[in-house]
Amino acid sequence: MIRLAINPLTWTNDDMPELGAETPLETCLAEARQSGFAGVELGNKFPREAAALKPILSRHGLALASGWYGSRLLERDVDAEMAAAEPHIALLTAMGCTACVFAEVSRAVHGERGTPLSRRPVLSDADWAVLAPRMTEMGRRLAARGLRLAYHHHMGTVIETEAEIDRLMASTGPEVGLLLDTGHLTFAGGDPVAAGRRHAARIAHVHCKDVRAPVMADVKTRDLPFLAAVLEGVFTVPGDGSVDFAAVFAMLAEAGYDGWLVVEAEQDPAKAHPLTYARLGHGTAERLAAASFGARFSPAAA
């Protein structure tokens, strides 16, 4: 079944908490449902205990699609990583999630406001030899808990480019799934459709993020930090940028993808009115998902 979710970054930002700081969680959830979404991902205002979170989401008729986990497998072994991740794993499983959004954040610069993206970390062969087997084992252990590791390639991290995604998929076992993020891959100079076709069997989760191509070209020319690029408006929701979502969804349908399509766009809510953009993202995703997936698409009642 294909369902639509939204990330609360539309309303309030995790990496820049001052963006949307005044917006209560209830507003995020009410407007997500008002826009027609069936689910949400975790954000910094969400309670992290299932007993507290379940009744809140239930009140708004929303499911939890997943939530971000930043790993440090380059710095610690799998036992230590599993111990660090346990509260997150327990929350996702208790909430009925089937995928864990998983990104390696060792050495990452995406949260550093003064570090340009050109200075982001690049793995050596020795680093790959450490990371890949640990990632496979992490995927194995998450699977034992009922969760698919959905690896999130991300600007400013060690897995950013299409070539790095290819190497990660080639050097890890099938226990490591792929979170295909259309915006991050486009920003990194990649092709979401081509990469998706190559790794179709591994796609475990999808982030539907659009890119404003003129802004992307400008921030690359100026070599801005990631968060500065966000503030410049490099990302937006589907239907407001240059990503060909009709082609992306057609590829996913052909691949037999089953799961959430998550609308996500880090924007300044003072410049990009959250409800307006949530509705635009949902409308675009709903129309294209219905066309591509047919009866497998389950729209939420608005």
From TrEMBL:
Q: What SUPFAM superfamilies does this protein's entry cite? A: Xylose isomerase-like
Q: Which UniProt keywords apply?
A: Lyase
Query: What Gene Ontology molecular function terms does this protein carry?
Result: myo-inosose-2 dehydratase activity
Classification via InterPro entries: IolE/MocC (IPR030823), IolE/XylAMocC-like (IPR050312), Xyl_isomerase-like_sf (IPR036237), Xyl_isomerase-like_TIM-brl (IPR013022)
EC number(s) per entry: 4.2.1.44
Q: Which domain of life is it from?
A: Bacteria
Concerning Gene3D superfamilies, the annotation shows: Divalent-metal-dependent TIM barrel enzymes
Family matches, as Pfam families: AP_endonuc_2
Q: List each copy of the Xylose isomerase-like TIM barrel domain by range.
A: 29-271
Mind telling me what this protein is named? Myo-inosose-2 dehydratase
